[in-house]
């Protein structure tokens, strides 16, 4: 029998400019051969078939699906999963879901909730910033954290200001997970991290370095968000520039909250 809560990584088969090689989902099988899937993918047939194959190997059934947040690459597969597994329940932190992707009814999860996975439990840790409804799922006995889009090993995370992303929250969420002293991070993109402290600290330092670059750009007289982004992300692929612009906007909003910058429309200046 597998050790308790040994996650089975199942790729969602949705590579792209913003998803990289694609999403990871994680299947947890308990001692009663009931399955919990972390994140729903996008409904790709190969993803659905791989889930079924993993379940069938153990003569298991899917009983619950937990989304780390409501971005499309994490919830769009819910309708297809519900069709294949009609007895499964779906859970997420309350937040807006596009009507076309609403799918099955979502049961609410909030910070501090406990989700049973057989005899094991996952604690819901609210970790907003990348998205306002983002959560991390914490397994205390193994000090493992399923972190969704909180970190992506070797890359940076977009803070989508236009969809509720907030940099102050993101930095606090990184600190919140760091203070749990995890031993392993299971992200929705990129490699599993077995050095969580250095990974989380790197993310905090990276964001603070970006903040210094934004401040330097403002000091140099750049006042429009696209111009600031161009000066910082020189050479970035054009298709990724909208994401960079949103992240710069998130940095500016943080500076504004702290009383360090002001704006008149789209023009920003330091205080």
Protein topology:
Layout: E1 8-11, E2 24-29, E3 34-38, H1 45-57, E4 61-66, H2 72-75, H3 78-84, E5 89-92, E6 106-108, E7 114-117, E8 120-126, E9 135-139, E10 144-148, H4 167-179, E11 184-187, H5 196-219, H6 225-232, H7 241-257, E12 261-264, E13 267-270
Helix pairs in contact: 4-5, 5-6, 6-7
Describe the structure.
- It is a single chain.
- The chain is 32% helix and 23% strand.
- By secondary structure, the chain is an alpha/beta fold.
- It has two domains: 8-194, Ribonuclease Z/Hydroxyacylglutathione hydrolase-like (Metallo-beta-lactamase, Chain A), CATH 3.60.15.10; 210-270, Arc Repressor Mutant, subunit A (Orthogonal Bundle), CATH 1.10.10.
- Helix 4 (167-179) runs antiparallel to helix 5.
- The chain is elongated and about 65 Å long.
- The termini are far apart.
At CATH level 3, the topology of the largest domain is Metallo-beta-lactamase, Chain A
Mean pLDDT: 93
DSSP helix count? 7
Radius of gyration: 19 Å
Q: Which strands sit side by side, in order, in the main sheet? A: 1-2-3-4-5-6
Proportion of beta-strand residues? 15-25%
Helix proportion range: 25-40%
Overall strand count: 13
CATH architectural designation of the largest domain? 4-Layer Sandwich
Shape: elongated
Instruction: Give the N-to-C terminal Cα separation.
Output: 61 Å
Structural class: alpha/beta
Biggest sheet, in brief? 6 strands, mixed
Q: State the low-pLDDT regions, or none.
A: none
> What is the H/E order?
EEEHEHHEEEEEEHEHHHEE
